[in-house]
Amino acid sequence: MMINSREALRKTIECDLKSMGMYPLSLRKKVGEVFAAQRWKLVIELRKLEYLKTKYHGGLIDTIILAVYSKRLERYQHKLGCEIPPGVFGPGLCINHTQGIVVTGNARVGANCRINAGVNIGEFGKFKQLQTTTNNYKQLQT
Description:
Layout lengths: L5 H14 L7 H9 L3 H16 L5 H21 L1 E2 L10 E2 L5 E3 L4 E2 L4 E2 L4 E2 L10 E2 L9
Parallel strand pairs: 1-3, 2-5, 3-6, 4-7
């Protein structure tokens, strides 16, 4: 799930918003989403951080920009009650309800994944091997 160009970033965000039914946005949907949980902002911040991590060169300015975007993502995750590290999900991520979602950084989920509240994708104890989910996985829920 590498986003290595601005065009790939734009296409990935567009695919994510389409999967959430928010692209293209009508005026009615725009007004409604301003007052909603703003889960789409979480996905956009997640994708921007993925892009910046692939473009990171180790300079001072890059480090500052990466820290700012990491903090912004952390703020959205805290606000919405979920923990999703960058680089786990492919394009087409749809988050229906954010409360209680926990994903480990070692997981790899393909494209077009729909995820509901209370989902935990992670490791347990001595079982450190994680399965890789294929593309077009319809729904992850508890």
